Amino acid sequence: MITIALTKGRILKDTLPLLAAADIVPEENIAESRKLVFSTNHDDVQLLVLRGIDVLTYIRYGAADLGVVGKDMLMEDGGDELYELHDLAIARCRLMTARQTQQVERSAQSRLKVATKYVNIAQRFYAEKGIQADIIKLYGGMELAPIMNLADEIVDIVDTGKTLVANGLEPVDFIADISSRLVVNKASMKVKYDQLKSLTDLIASAVGDN
Ligand code: AMP
């Protein structure tokens, strides 16, 4: 059995055509189901639908062989147990810092409060810039934190930037370009090499076609 862990939400929507190109088709409509595991047109391939951070955990422990996850998740919580095989060039966005439009420049004296779900990325980014920052972990709705004075800045992914503008924020620093990646458990790649190699080659060859 090959188990493929998919990231739900907008990554999933763009992943399904790539899987279809590799002749992997779920047996029911994932978007309309509350199930978390789906059989496919192949008896030996199943799909899991999870949050990105959980996709990495399933692959790391070998509970899934293969997965699709945002580069932001890999930057935050990568690991030695997995290989990043291909850039799937889907769900593209940017990782940015942002702050309130009317806010003054960062002051060198005071510590910056930064709200984000990307604690590790934020810690590395501000340290490299030599900025003293206290990182506050949030699980969503980061844009609210500066408005409510919980934080001076946020670190979040930005696509059109409309969510920032709608909340009176503006992007400040570019941290990284983000897209979804095909990731494999290292041990699975050894044990199931032939199956996984042909499957991942088919997915990779469909990149850019959808
Ligand atoms: P935006 O288009 O910048 O208004 O993005 C809207 C929200 O969607 C942001 O708050 C992000 O957290 C989220 N978002 C943007 N791009 C992606 C993506 N590629 N994958 C997952 N979430 C995203």
How many domains? The number is 2
Largest sheet: 6 strands, mixed
Question: What is the helix fraction of residues, given as a range?
Answer: 25-40%
Mean pLDDT: 95
What small molecules are bound in this structure? adenosine monophosphate
**Global outline:** elongated
Strand order of the largest sheet: 2-3-1-4-11-5
Number of helices: 8
CATH superfamily of the largest domain: Periplasmic binding protein-like II
Low-confidence stretches at least 5 residues in length (pLDDT < 50)?
none
Q: Based on the structure given, which CATH architecture of the largest domain is correct?
A: 3-Layer(aba) Sandwich
**What is the CA–CA distance across the termini?**
27 Å
**Fold-level CATH name of the largest domain:** D-Maltodextrin-Binding Protein, domain 2
Class by alpha and beta content: alpha/beta
Multimerization status:
single chain
Short description:
The chain contains 8 helices and 11 strands. With 210 residues, the protein is an alpha/beta fold. The strands form 2 sheets. A 6-stranded mixed beta sheet has the order 2-3-1-4-11-5, with helices on both faces. Strands 8-7-9-6-10 form a 5-stranded mixed beta sheet.
Task: List the defining traits of the structure above.
2 domains; five-stranded mixed beta sheet; D-Maltodextrin-Binding Protein, domain 2; binds adenosine monophosphate; alpha/beta; 210 residues; 31% strand; 31% helix
